[in-house]
Amino acid sequence: MYGRDFFVELCTLPKVVVHDIIIIGGGLAGLTAAVDLSQQGYDVVLFEVNTYPHHKVCGEYVSNEVRPYLERLGIDLLAKGAVAITDFEISTLSGYKAATKLPLGGMGMSRYAFDHLLYKKAIGQGVLCNFSKVTSVTYQNDRFNVKTNNESLYAKVVIGAYGKRSALDKALRRDFSFEKQGWLAVKGHFSHPSFPQNLVALHNFEGGYGGLSRTESGAVNFCYLTTYESFKRYNDIAKFNRIVVAENKFLKQFLNESQPVFDSPLTIAQISFQKKKPIVDHILMCGDTAGLIHPLCGNGMAMAIHSAKLASTVIGEYFRNATYDRSQMEQDYLSVWNRTFKQRLWYGRKLQHVLLQKKYLEVGIKTVGNSKSLLRFIINKTHGKTIV
């Protein structure tokens, strides 16, 4: 039999706090989900490794398809200095260029400013931001245990929004994380006096392609993706830019006429474009964690934000509706995620294949360049409809 002292000690033990939602990763997807779910009245904890503000490797162009949704959440990017973008152009290595108006248009804003804006919105709504690295997530007895190196928290729902690649992927036994990947991304901000305010440009070079667009600071963001096979012959960004990137006359002109703002460019390696599962061990994955959007699609930021909305919608229903169980929530999220993004990702993979094949690229760009409607059709296939 247990004595009185045992029950006194049992009653004085601290109770385990189970949060409604833990979000792992404080990029666009994670922060947007935090803002949305906290507005719905839920207890949200967000984990992010780096304090805000900070720069990230990103194209920094966001399609207007998510603008009404962001405004519903109380986030007006144009009012915060984002640049309105209306025009698109694409060029080949030989110097041929095709241009058109963007069907929906978009906005240019650095991740430095955008993420910080979302972060301030989230903490203003009571989201608890924890600046530490999550080392493991386990699911048992209908709740999650999320651990860092120095603490352990519990939650009813977990969202994974930690980006393109993380050590956590290996802990979750995700197949792609155990394989070497052949892609490298490089980003820098540049001061350029005459780059058009309203333009997003995509220029191709041997083994890769890069995007240019203005940000809220006035700087032009130049972010490119290249194969590691192409880069490793030089193994130096300045040399690679001078010899390979500048083979495209438009990029050569840009680099010659601009001055770097950053002391050194940002890079990210081991980028995987393999298919990923949107749900892993009951964790709802968002943004690049669920499926990496090819940069040439030009709207990875919008897709990350849209995925946060999809997750927030089913999670809200799960908490509000007692008959809507976890299995139904996961089934609905998987279904709507595939319906929303699967075809767009497929088009992105096909377009990337074309852009990296010289024999297809020249003919393809010239074909779409002679038909504005065809070019806009391709853009529409990699963009979504407006969401609220």
Overall description:
The protein is 36% helix and 26% strand. With 388 residues, the chain is of the alpha/beta class. It has one domain (18-381): FAD/NAD(P)-binding domain (3-Layer(bba) Sandwich). The strands form two sheets. Strands 3, 4, 5, 10, 11, 12, 13, 14 and 15 form a nine-stranded mixed beta sheet that branches. Strands 1, 2, 6, 7, 8, 9, 16 and 17 form an eight-stranded mixed beta sheet that branches. Strand 16 and strand 17 (283-285) form a beta hairpin. Helix 2 (28-39) runs parallel beside helix 4 and helix 9 (300-320) runs antiparallel to helix 10 (326-355). The protein is globular. It starts with a helix and ends in a 7-residue tail after the last helix. The model is unreliable at 6-13 (pLDDT under 50).
List the helices and strands and how they pair.
Layout: H1 4-12, E1 18-24, H2 28-39, E2 44-47, E3 61-63, H3 67-72, E4 83-91, E5 97-108, H4 111-124, E6 128-130, E7 134-140, E8 143-148, E9 152-160, H5 167-171, E10 183-191, E11 199-205, E12 208-214, E13 220-227, H6 228-231, H7 237-243, H8 249-257, E14 259-260, E15 266-269, E16 279-280, E17 283-285, H9 300-320, H10 326-355, H11 358-369, H12 372-381
Helix pairs in contact: 2-4, 2-9, 9-10
Strand content: 25-35%
Task: Give the topology string: H per helix, E per strand.
Answer: HEHEEHEEHEEEEHEEEEHHHEEEEHHHH
Which outline best applies?
Answer: globular
Number of strands: 17
Q: Could you tell me the radius of gyration in angstroms?
A: 22 Å
For the record, give the distance between the C-alpha atoms at the N and C termini, rounded to a whole number: 61 Å
Tell me the name of the CATH class: Alpha Beta
Mean pLDDT: 89
State the major sheet: 9 strands, mixed
Query: What's the name of the CATH homologous superfamily?
Result: FAD/NAD(P)-binding domain
Helix vs. strand class: alpha/beta
Helix segment tally: 12
Structural domains: how many: 1
Helix content: 25-40%
Low-pLDDT runs of 5+ residues are 6-13
CATH-scheme architecture: 3-Layer(bba) Sandwich
